[in-house]
Design brief:
This protein has about 300 residues and is α/β, with parallel strands linked by helices. The chain has 15 helices and ten strands.
């Protein structure tokens, strides 16, 4: 979400250049046949990588298929194009992101309704479908330092809006651009910051907030560093954000060719709650552990691996 001391225009240019390069790399040839393997993608942040590895190990354990990992495929747009082109077979996504950023539909507040709307549209329009929700809701989290929240007695975004004119904000590029992101949030709460928000790399938001380079950040509710850095998540008291249930997006053709994959996805349904996902993220971001080891331990603890 950030390039620390460069002008905003240069940060945007760099981000777009990386996206274009990734797009060219992924789609420079025709989609291969995946008759003997499953290709799993992920976005370029910790939680997506962690979920991708959990999916990979579960499919490897429950089927006889080889699994190819294509992680860190930039953001939502690149992953969506990769799965539509057949370059990957599945990847972790969030229902609220699919609804607003991909399908361009109005924000909804009921998680079951949002899930069913996305699933129906994906199946009828895109040749994709959804696995069952993993069990946690990774909504956007407007984070401030814990000492600031305690000093100012802040609980909600509405309360924080009075202090925003003196604050510096840090947001990710995708959050700045997507329909459920910054513009709508600013309108819903009347937010007017002291300067335009800094566009930052996702992994640098929490450290920048802790180090007082910014005063508020758009993180995720399951960020592993929230507790470690003593950050505080402001309540979305006007219910601006839709539910963001984590799910696997999978090509229908993949399930037709390999129905055993559906059983592996079903086994992961409801297996990860909010707190567990936060701990998994912290194992990578805070303890710098190998994702493969963390995924194996988690699946073993759930009785899904020996």
């Amino acid at each position: 979400m950030k390039r620390e001391n460069q002008p905003t225009r240069h940060r945007l240019d760099a981000t777009l250049t990386v996206c274009v390069a990734c797009f060219a790399l992924i789609f420079s040839s025709c989609a291969p046949s995946h008759a003997d393997r499953i290709v799993i993608g992920s976005k370029n942040f910790t939680e997506s990588l962690m979920l991708g590895e959990i999916l990979a190990q579960e499919i490897e354990a429950q089927t006889h298929l080889k699994v190819e990992r294509r992680f860190y495929l930039a953001g939502t747009y690149i992953c969506q194009q990769a799965i539509l082109s057949g370059r990957i077979d599945l990847y972790p996504e969030y229902t609220g992101t699919a609804l607003t950023a991909i399908l361009k539909q109005p924000i909804g507040s009921d998680k079951s309704n949002v899930y069913q709307r996305v699933k129906h549209e994906y199946e009828t329009r895109l040749g994709l479908t959804l696995g069952p929700p993993f069990g946690f809701n990774n909504t956007f989290a407007m984070e401030v330092r814990g000492d600031d929240a305690r000093r100012l007695n802040l609980q909600t975004l509405s309360q924080a809006s009075a202090y925003v004119p003196r604050w510096r904000a840090g947001f990710g590029y995708e959050f700045m651009e997507r329909p459920d992101g910054y513009k709508g949030l600013a309108a819903a709460y009347g937010l007017r910051f002291s300067a335009p928000p800094r566009i930052m790399d996702l992994g640098l938001l929490a450290p920048a907030l802790k180090d007082r380079q910014i005063d508020i950040a758009a993180g995720n509710a399951t960020d592993g560093l929230i507790a470690a850095f003593d950050l505080f998540v402001l309540e979305d008291d006007r219910h601006y954000f839709p539910p963001y249930e984590a799910v696997a997006v999978v090509r229908q053709q993949t399930l037709q060719q390999h129905p055993e994959v559906a059983a592996a996805l079903a086994a992961l349904g409801g297996k990860i709650n909010d707190r567990e996902m936060q701990k998994l993220n912290y194992a990578l971001d805070g303890e710098h552990r190998d994702p493969k080891d963390v995924a194996h331990e988690f699946l073993h603890s759930k009785g899904l691996l020996p």
